[in-house]
Amino acid sequence: MDAVSEIEKIDVQAEKNLNPVFQEDYVGKDGLLYCGRCHTRKEYRINSALLRKEMIVRVKCQCEQEQWDREEAARALREKQNRIRRMKGTCIHDRALLDCIFEEDDGSLPQIGSARKYVETWQERKANNDGLLLWGGVGTGKTFYAACIANALIEEGVSVLMTNFSKILNQLSGMYSEDKNHFIASLMEYSLLIIDDFGIERSTEYALEQVFNIIDERYKTRLPLIVTTNLSLETMKNPADIAHQRIYDRVLAMCIPISFQGENHRKADTEKKFKNGKCLFEDEGDEENGNEIE
């Protein structure tokens, strides 16, 4: 054996002595195999009534069991993450809303605390059929608030659908009556339905009837509903016609109103991007040539 091989052999043996992982299994005084690392049994004796003899069976030692448990936990976590990813991809129709999570709140939305509480007390909210009506001006954070709830509940395995009536009505168009009934029934399979931008959909007689049917079905099945709208609470309490009154009465009966009357965050974001754009494109050449971004 050459010097290099001998050194390697010595190094391996030293590693075995220092690291219990490399300790060899051994046979104990009872004649059974033990793990050289954790010193727990890898074999057990059992009496087989069927075979009428004693048998030695292989089992996991403690460190093998712990390793198996870790791998199983990691596998279960991966499966959960993949399931949540699939649910979000299916249940939140606007991909931009997937990033709306409580951790992204910058403190500019004072109502966000009640959104966290809604998630924390979800079982009670569901039992009481407590929905939310998020109303107020454009860009005041209503959609972010609702999407935070959706993402947080989906993370906990709750079935949530976040969409709007324009998408629903487009899906219903062209369906036969039976298919429409099945589709509306499928919306009741979700523990929570979130309708974003309520009021922007068409106001035709057909559209209003379908909107009422869906909201009424949630009402009758006692399933929570969250609605975001730019409509004022006064408008919803004093509708212009019977068709809208039927819809608004159901929403107000199911949903707790929360007002969003702050600044337009989307307008502020637009102005910030505009300023960043000016900084990006303004250079010495522009200044010399008298060019300026307006």
Automatic annotation (TrEMBL):
Protein's organism: Fusibacillus kribbianus
Query: Which biological process annotations from GO are given for this protein?
Result: DNA replication
In alphabetical order, the GO MF annotations are: ATP binding
What UniProt keywords apply to this chain's record, in alphabetical order? ATP-binding, Coiled coil, Nucleotide-binding
Q: Which domain of life is it from?
A: Bacteria
Residue ranges of coiled coil: 63-90
Domain (IstB-like ATP-binding) spans 69-269
SUPFAM superfamilies xref list: P-loop containing nucleoside triphosphate hydrolases (SSF52540)
The protein, known as: ATP-binding protein
The record, for Pfam families, names: IstB_IS21 (PF01695)
UniProt key word Ubl conjugation: no
The family database entries (InterPro entries) matched by this protein are listed as:
IstB_ATP-bd, P-loop_NTPase
Query: Any keyword Lyase?
Result: no
